[in-house]
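Memo to structure team: turn this sequence into structure tokens by end of day. - J.P.
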Amino acid sequence: MQNFSYSIPTKVEFGKGAVKKLPEFVREFGEWVLLVYGGGSIKRSGLYDTVVELLDANGIYHAELSGVEPNPRTTTALCGIL
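Reply from structure team:
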């Protein structure tokens, strides 16, 4: 095994209305985002619609990869690339 360093900085925003800051956070990395989720509770709860509306209103392109299983296989991850 080769030596390497791995850094995964994480920003988490908590509180009422925190989701409204999503476009600001996405723009730190670009103008495109892949929405990845599993069974669909994000849609049933209404959060998906809120996120998509925020992205659309701020001109942020988005694509969707749904049905992702826990501990996804490489083949599932590749679907997000294509």
